[in-house]
Write a structure and sequence with these properties.
8 strands; 23% strand; alpha+beta; two-stranded antiparallel sheet; Elongation Factor Tu (Ef-tu), domain 3; 6-stranded antiparallel beta barrel; single chain; 30% helix
Length: 197
């Protein structure tokens, strides 16, 4: 399927009565599609995908369109949202430790590549601390460096291990045996509470 048809298909999955905070609606998307402004249409559809969160099919279709346009960051974001649709959303406010207090000396890309370990309160059968792996997406920034702070999204390797998380809970990020940062959980939307169609 070509890009315009993919974007049209995604547009048809957006309810007509929803709008973003900036009053963007699916009708705005259609205006850009008519004028072959595919990148703008894709950007608007990504924004509409949050009001309310849309289906996995919507995000898969957007990911395919972004890949065909070779917009790799958009494609990665759409795949990330597919994961969240299936497994739930975990958002947290992460503060990294300064470079002189942790292993990390340079910023890391914020586009879901880093897979740190997290102390989320789980224990092994013998009572020792268990660390759980989750990919990390930095919101509104291309990267995050030592001493910096940003809202992030987490994609756990095993979502079932994270079901106990609650807003306000403090979790610790590890890249080795020392703490790399701490995060306060902002939002948790488990799939068992909000199943995806």
């Amino acid at each position: 399927m070509d890009v315009p048809k993919l974007l049209e298909a995604a547009s048809l999955l957006v309810p007509e009565d929803i709008a973003t905070e900036n009053d963007i609606t699916v009708n705005d998307v259609w205006d850009y599609l008519i004028h072959d402004e595919w990148k703008v249409a894709l950007d608007l559809l990504e924004q509409l995908g949050d009001v309310p969160p849309l289906t996995q099919s919507f995000w898969e279709t957007l990911a395919a369109a972004a890949e065909q346009m070779q917009l790799w960051n958009s494609a990665s974001w759409c795949h990330w949202r597919c994961y969240e649709t299936r497994n739930g959303t975990i958002r947290a406010d992460l503060t990294l430790r300064p470079a002189d207090q942790s292993r990390r000396r340079t910023p890391f890309t914020g586009a879901g590549v880093l897979r740190p370990m997290w102390d989320i309160g789980n224990r092994t059968p013998t009572g020792e601390r268990a660390l759980n792996i989750a990919r990390l997406w930095v919101e509104s920034k291309p990267s995050l460096g030592p001493g910096e702070r940003s809202p992030v999204r987490l994609a756990p390797l095993d979502p079932s291990q994270w079901l106990h998380l609650q807003p306000g809970q403090v979790i610790t990020m590890h890249e080795d045996h020392t703490a790399a940062g701490t995060a306060v959980v902002l939002d948790v939307d488990h799939p068992r509470l909000n199943p995806a169609p």
